[in-house]
Fold this protein.
Amino acid sequence: MSLGNTDWRSLNGLNGGELKGEVFSILQDASFRIQTGQLDDPELLAVVPRLAELMTNKPELQNFGEVFSALARSLGLWNYVDRRRAAARDELAAERATVPALGITLHREQLSALHTLLAGKNLILSAPTSFGKSILIDVLLLHEKFRRVAIVLPTIALLDEFRRRLLTRFGDRFDVLMHHSEKAERERVIFLGTQERLINRDDLGTLDLAVVDEFYKLDPKRKDERAVTLNAAVYRILGRAKQFFFLGPNIENVLTAEGSRWGFEFLRTRFSTVAVDTIDLKSVPDKDARLYYEIQNAANWPALVFVSSPDKANGLASGLVERKVKLGSGQALSRWMVDNYGGKWELSEAIAAGVGVHHGRIPRSLASRFVFLFNEKKLPILICTSTLIEGVNTAAKSVLIYDKTIANRPYDFFTFSNIRGRAGRLGQHHVGQVFLFHEPPDREDVEVTAPLFGDPDEAPDEFVVHMEEGDVSSSVSDRVQDMAQRVGLDPSDIRRFSGLGIETLVGLRAATAAAMRARADLIWSGRPSYNQLKALCSLVCSVEKPQTFGCSSASQLTLYISKLRQYTTMRAFYHWHSSSYRGEPQKIDNVFKFLRAAEYSLPEYFAVVELFVKARAPDQDASYALLLAELPRWFRAEPLKILEEQGVPIQISERFLRTGDSVTTLGLRLRTAANNESKLLSPMERQWITDALPR
């Protein structure tokens, strides 16, 4: 049997001599292909994980251990070498690629990338999802030369994943900082952050290494509204860094302008450590029925179900509940959700049935818990949107790609490849499964064109305003001055708020002028009254749709902020919202969208309005400072908010808060309470804390 026509799934039905004969033929063909083909040929590489899966399930194949290990060594998949049965040469190859401090064995392409980085060169790495890119970051941190490191990540969910892993592996030698309030106490420090958090840090100093994960987001053509802010943040960080390392999937090329300030080596590889079976269901007449069938098939678990939007995810979860589907035991977590978020959230019923949901309208601590339980095989199904595709590691055996759009736009082949790449996990599921319910997008090569590497004369205004004087031409300098006049702010203020967009700043300037002419109550200091808050929200919602902030109107936005400020605990706030909510049941989670807006975007809008108010009324006392300080932390003590991002719900940690607590002291108190089986915590909550706070 040759590789090209091997029916791997049918091999599972064979036994004894017949199976051995087929496997022997496969090994022969693979050996021939090694001599004549390319070593990164995906079909050839896939033979190793497929055979590993087969040998795990078929005891009669154990005698093939030595020749299998020779194949794995020849292809550079040293992490698959079976050292108990390998020949000395194969065992030695695996030994040389092993990092004892981390307990992992690298493969050939990982080692190649590592050698480039340890030689002091900048590297941009494009590799499949299952390559193991983040492992390279951990290996670099073992080396003495990398003492101050900044890591730029696209989402808070990925920040939390990195934080836990880095604290577990390096917490004894590095300070791992995620928030401005956290300061380094040791010489070795890792700054973790999204672009919005790192762009304004003033304590980065000189960096030994800058890491940018999911670097394709630098390209504005990816339609990510945060792309320009990412370019500006990376530009600032690279100016402080001795070396950089960019990671991302499935990129063919990175385009740079002639004479670009940043030089790098580009490594593109097809090297993958798992194999994937594709199950074509696009011709199935009743796709809904087939989806529900595959979701309930335990042979597919753990499974990610990709849908296009939070509403679709909520609807699918509700559909499973209506069908009385029972996939796992989530009753304890479900009861906790009812008690702490209120009884109207339908997701609690889905969790009771063993079905998790992950999208942008799920509280971060809860979303993190769902992923953890999914990886622990305690939630067999996780219905997700693109929020789980961007770098968060999951131990999914199967991916069911049910929709062909993201937010009503067809996704491209690049995005499809990233979704597909979530199937399979080295060491757990050597062979993943992808169920396709629609025709996949046409294959296309993806090139990244980033303002960071391009011609400044052609870069967006929001980026060039961040550039240093020595890097720009006179024409760009003129553009910045024109911007300052049009926006009515100093270049330094434009830089500070460029993430909102230049046209938005212009709109806010005009709206503020109009509101003040209409005598809107915008001139105040301290804590605003309800009417003052409403005037501010109305102004902002005249420029930006209130739906952006998770609300239907400026009045609702005002009410939400007022109630968030009024209630002394988040549990009380959530119960108020649940009891007063009158909208569509599946959209009750928009309150979490509001809370995310309160963390960053709303304070940004309010701060810009404050600047314009002060400019128009310089002799009057207008200061929004208190609101701008309290709103991002939901009018709570900052340690509560930080721990929420780290996976501990505020509803738990607020029971233990004391005056003067830092995130360190409160975290220690929580871990102590969990370890001592405090009666203030249920057994489930104790385990939650232990899992979220690794030290």
User: Anything to note?
Assistant: Residues 174 and 432 are 35 Å apart (CA to CA). The chain has a mean pLDDT of 94.
